[in-house]
Structure formats: C-alpha cells, structure tokens
Amino acid sequence: MPVFTYRGVNRAGTKVSGERMADSKAALQAQLRREQINVSKLSEKGKEFNIPTFGTGVDSKELAIFTRQFSVMIDAGLPLVQCLEILAGQQENKIFQKILTSVRASVEGGSTLSASMKQHEKVFDPLYYNMVEAGETGGILDTILQRLSTYIEKNVKLKRAVKSAMIYPVSVMGIAIAVVGLLLWKVVPIFATLFAGLGATLPLPTRIVIMLSNFVGSIYGLLIVVFAVGGGFALNFWYKTPQGRYMIDALLLKAPVVGNVLRKIAVARFTRTLGTLISSGVPILEGLDITSRTAGNAVVEKAIAQTRKAVEAGRSLVDPLKETDVFPGMVTQMIGVGEQTGAMDAMLQKIADFYEDEVDVAVKDMLTAIEPIMIVFLGVVVGGVVISMYLPMFSLIGQLSKT
User: Fold this and answer.
1) Ordered alpha helix ranges (H), 183-257
2) Which of 6, 216, 362, 380 would staple 221 via disulfide (CB 3.0–4.6 Å)?
3) What is the dihedral of CA 164, 270, 352, 244, to 10 degrees?
C-alpha cells in the first residue's frame, strides 16, 4: 500500500501535515475530507516530482462522446460508480481512462461527482462541473449530461468554423511565401548566372527579381528570417499578457472580413453557454462568471464581466449588455424579451441557434470570396517571378532570329 504526504487546513483553521497509507490518492482525499481537512497538497511519497505534461490529452470530441454515453447510462438507471467503471474500461485514450478511474475512486470514497471532476479541471472545466453539481442537486443528472453533450458538440462545430475561417488564407499565404522564397533562393541564381554569361540586356522586372534573389541569398535574408521567427515568438508572448490579448482580440474583431465571423462566433458561444447554464439551474451571476471565462475573446470576456458587476448591483441583464457595444442590437433586444417573459434560457438558445447558422453561412461566403483572391494572388506572385526570368530569353531568341 503506497504512502502519501499531505498538507492542508483543518476546520479550526490550523495548518496540518503528515504521512498516511491509502489504497489511492483519491481514497486518501475522501478520508481527509471526512475529517474536515481541506487539502492543499497531496502526493505519493517518492513520486513528488513528476514529468510535466502539456495539454489535457483529451479533446472535445472524446469528452462529448463520454458525456453522451454517461447520460444514456444514468437515464437507464445504472449506478454512478458502475457507469464510470464501464466508461473508463472502454476508453481508448489512456490519459482519459486514468482520469475517469480517478473520478470513480473519488466517488466511491464518498465525494460527489462534481467535486471529483473538479480535481481534473483541465478536462472538466468550471462550466462542466458546475452543471454536474446543479444536476446532482436537482436530481436531473441525466438531463444535465444530455445538455452538456449537446453543448460540447455545438462548441466543437464552432471551433471548426474558426479553423475554416483562419487556416485557409493563412496556409495559402504560407505556401506562397515558401514557393517564392525557394524560387528566389535556388532557381533565380541559376538564371542570373546564365544571363551574365550570355551578356543579355535585362529588363526592369528581371533586374528587380535578381536583386531580391541576391538579398534573400545574403546574410540580410537570413536576418529577416530570424527577426520574423523572433517577432512571431514575441507576438505570441505578448498575446499571453492581459493587455496584449485584449488589443489583439480587439483588432481581430475589427478586421474587415474575419472580424464579422469572429463576432458571430463570440455571440453564439456566449448565448449557448449562458443559456445552457441557466436552463440547468446555475444562478445567473455564477453563469455569467463561467461564461466570461469561456468566452474565447478578451473583449467579449471584459464585456460579460462588466455586465455581471452591473447585475450584481441590481440592474437587469439587457441594459449593461447594450452599454458594452459588443453585442448586436438584435441580441440585446431578444435577451430583453426573454427577461420580461421569464424565458431567458429558451431565448438564449434560440439566439445561439440563429447565430450558429449565421456562422456557417458567413464562413462559406468568406471562403467563396477569398478563394479566387488567393488564386489570383498566387498566380501574380509566382507567375510574375517565372515570367520575369523568361523575358531576357525572349529577347535573346529575337536577336538570334535576326542574325
């Protein structure tokens, strides 16, 4: 039986620590909880230092499938521990299997399902375990899990829309830069040597391309690559700061084509998340707090946080939302109607459905508009380099035909 070291605070507020033997970490947590000790640190003796892992190792699709299966099992009347045991046993993802096994052990040790899931916050986010807690309290866990699975599935769909909106133009630009760089670095110098040997008179486009080729092949070209990579890392680092994230997210929302799509995605995510939480019995203030943390955009997050403060001060939801100037007028009007009729959750879900359809249409329209522009761009840039290299050859052929 392994030995664990722990630190925490007892019900008297005194710090306590020590070593205990237990079957598992979850079992010891449950035992300490029964003794009213709030654990701050718990680790197996001799294994205090673990190799860090990056990311959760569980994607949204796997979580959605698990939640859907879990809701069906609960609805069928299977005991909670047995459901978790079956789902963990059939899970192909070993990381997720380990997490579900830990949750099962914690529940078996006396913890609630929501508290057990809260221990794995990287996989089960605040929205997830708060909704599960509401389901446990209201005795409607199966219904809550069904709502959760639907929410996650729709969230996955929105993420795909973001990728479709961003990846295509970025990838085409990247390919264009790579192709032109390769031409300037490897192909153009061969032509330049050939023209110099023949003593050909070079037209202006050819001279410009050869100058660019010489620049790319020199130390300055390497410095530009280094500065570009460094600038990318610096931008990424800046984006991780609150100020940088807010400024970049604000610029993205104001971007000519992409901004409209991103704003619709933000509205759909906000209304879907808040509607799901309210319909599941989560209080409005807690719902707004969770929604702001899962907004995905710093500007929207700040707007929701400001709205939450106003609601906490006793104001209605619709007026603070209008004052933020982030949400379209139609959204705030429909939320106002939902407040007046007492059907806020249903109204939010309708808004989310409408904007998710709008996102699909906007992404398709954007890709339809961008595709010919990208093709023309590639043709002009790559074709321009190739044609400029053949222009002197046309001149030489003309001179040879005259002789």
Assistant:
1) 188-198, 204-217, 219-239, 242-254
2) 216
3) -30
